[in-house]
Amino acid sequence: MRGGLVSKVFLISLLLCASTTFAANPGRDPTLPPQNLLPATMAASDSAPMMLQAVVRGAQGSQAVIAGQNLRVGDTVADARVLAIYAHSVLIERQGERQLLRLAEPVMQPSR
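-> C-alpha cells emitted (112 positions)
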C-alpha cells in the first residue's frame, strides 16, 4: 500500500516539474536542443552562408531541408534557387553563381 502512495507522489511531482518547464517555454519544441547549442540564426543576406540540414528521398521525389524549409528542385529560399538534389548534397544557384551544399559528416559512424 505504501509503495503505491510513493509512486503517486513521485508522479505528481514529476508532472508539476514538467508543467513548470513547459510554461517557461510556451510553443517551443521540446525535442530541439538547448538554444546555446543551436547555430546562430543566419539572415537571408547575400553573404550569409546557407546550410543543408537534410535530404529526404521518398516516392514523390527528393526534398532538401534548407533554413528549416522543405524544398524541391525549382523552389527558392532567400535568394537561392534549388537546381538539383543529390543523396548527400544540393546544387543551388545564388546571384548567378552555382554552389554545392553538402550535409555535415555524421558525428557517430556505424560500426563495421
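The chain has one helix and seven strands.
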